[in-house]
Amino acid sequence: xxxxxxxxxxxxxxxxxxxxxxxxxxxxxxxxxxxxxxxxxxxxxxxxxxxxxxxxxxxxxxxxxxxxxxxxxxxxxxxxxxxxxxxxxxxxxxxxxxxxxxxxxxxxxxxxxxxxxxxxxxxxxxxxxxxxxxxxxxxxxxxxxxxxxxxxxxxxxxxxxxxxxxxxxxxxxxxxxxxxxxxxxxxxxxxxxxxxxxxxxxxxxxxxx
Length: 209
Prior knowledge:
alpha/beta, TIM Barrel, five-stranded mixed beta sheet, two-stranded parallel ribbon, 11 helices
């Protein structure tokens, strides 16, 4: 499946009405729900598509396969210059050897913030690996990036191959407190650089909406 073309078809309404959710965590990283429970809930609630994007691990897919109507995904911790960020990789070949080099080696690297903060991953090389795995690279919750100019920051990442921005994101809990930019700015920057717009709830709990 061409996941890039698929994701381009998702609309703001799909994300806002919870028909599509491309940012979900399970207990394979720091979420509470089991992978299989999320899949069943998505079926029961008639989601069009979901993506389980656990932190730095694809173990959920290795142990459960890629279910129908699920976009294979992972959320990486990485750095770009002085900015710590999260990079979502969508539609990747989960068996790609280049991408595997960037996966967590221990469970702590998937769930503990203080451990994940000290990652050695760098955005340019990570984006290259995501592309090598046939995927697209999307900057997660961009309004939380602690850069002075989101426009300049995204432009620089785009020069390294960034494919999209997570535009439809709720900014709840601590994400709302550490937010440095507005959703409107994120939306405008995505339009300016022709980036794919994605969205999700960043679920860490047990229940899909």
